[in-house]
Amino acid sequence: MSYVPGIVGALVFGIGMSQFPEFTLQYQQHLGEAVDELRIVTEEFDRAAVDQNMSREEALAAFNNSVFLGVPVYELEATFERFDNLVEDQKVLEDADAVGRFTSFLRMTDNELVQITWAGYEPALPKSPDGLVFALIGAMGGFYGGVQISGLISRRLRKTR
Question: Is 68 in the same domain as 83?
């Protein structure tokens, strides 16, 4: 009976962690789409700036009160910064193995993209070795955590009696 919390923890965390590889795959797809969209705006603006013999920064300052591709120019600086961050995130995730994607994902910069991915996420059975490894790691951690928490609670209850 003392292992029931461990078994429950193993099931919950094993199932939860097994979803990580699929979630990161879907996140990478959304990330790629966002990068592609922002690349269009960024490259078009940079091309327009070069046509005016200006750098991006000079064009941002010169046309601050204008609209470019339906976007107020004063908002484009944040768009360009987001584009640069997403390109960096994309490169980090593409170059990483499963464990690297896990640790890298924890530092991803775009919460909006994580929320969009989560909203459309559909859980799946782990079919890849990565999913099985993460399920095993989650199960072991969940079992250990469940047993430890159960032990702390039962010791506390014994002391109060």
Answer: yes
Note the pLDDT tens digit of each residue in 75-134.
888 899 999 999 999 999 888 888 888 888 777 778 899 999 999 998 877 778 888 888
CA separation for the pair 80, 46 (Å, rounded):
10
What three-state secondary structure class fits 64? Answer: coil
- The verdict on pTM exceeding 0.90 is no
Q: Are residues 58 and 12 in the same domain?
A: no
Q: How many residues does the chain have?
A: 161
Burial zone of 79 (CB within 10 Å; 0-12 exposed, 13-18 middle, 19+ buried): middle
Q: Both 68 and 147 in a single domain?
A: no
* Nearest partner of 112 among 44, 33, 19, judged by Cα: 33
Q: Are residues 15 and 37 both part of a single domain?
A: no
Residue 3 φ/ψ, nearest 5 degrees? -95, 0
The answer on 115 and 53 residing in a single domain is yes
